[in-house]
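One record is kept unedited as follows:
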Amino acid sequence: MENKTGKYFKYAIGEIILVVIGILIALQINNWNENNNLNKLRQEYYHQLLVDLQKDVESINEFFRINQANRNEYNAYIKLYNTEGLKPSQVYNELIKLNLISNAISLNSSTIESIRSSGELILFPLEIRSKLLDLTVLQNKITSDAKHSDDSKANIIQNIGTIRGASNLVSRLDNQPQLKSYLKINENLPEIILGLDAIHKWKDHSEMTSIKNLKLLTEDITIIIDLIESEMNKN
């Protein structure tokens, strides 16, 4: 009986050990599967972020290209004042050639916002998390500043439009002396020139600010891309 009891006891301990080992193996497999799924999700986010960031770089470069063309035209207008004896009509004609509309900059923040709202930002290393949050703040600032500048500029343009009409109205009135006299375009010309000159100076200043911030944004994007690619290469 003692021998049988000892055997049963050893058998029971063995069974318990096997069950514990089985549970540990199951937990290990479950943890491995969970970590594997989280890693796949992280890799998908990395890929989406890289796509968004690359689109931002392309948008920024396009903004720089168009802005440089606008700046060259504005600088040519400024140099016009080196000419002595400028006529009001000359200044006006050069002003209306300039582009009043600021080049819109489109920045992609959908993936970052999606990660933040889902609470899955914790999946990323601390350095990448911090850089992504800083990037979002700068993106929002650039977008907000540009919108504020455009809204303020639009009010001035609207006021000028009520005394100037369309940009090509003056040329259309060349063969309409009676109508031109009635509309008092020449009398309004000083106010129109001052208003347009102020708008273009405002536009020039706001775009310079945007360029400064976009250069900082480009530097941050480059750092984040390097960090993400480094993490992806680890897997």
About this structure: Residues 2-233 form one domain. Helices lie at 2-79, 88-95, 110-118, 126-164, 169-172, 177-183, 185-233. The chain has a mean pLDDT of 83. The CA atoms of residues 24 and 73 lie 73 Å apart.
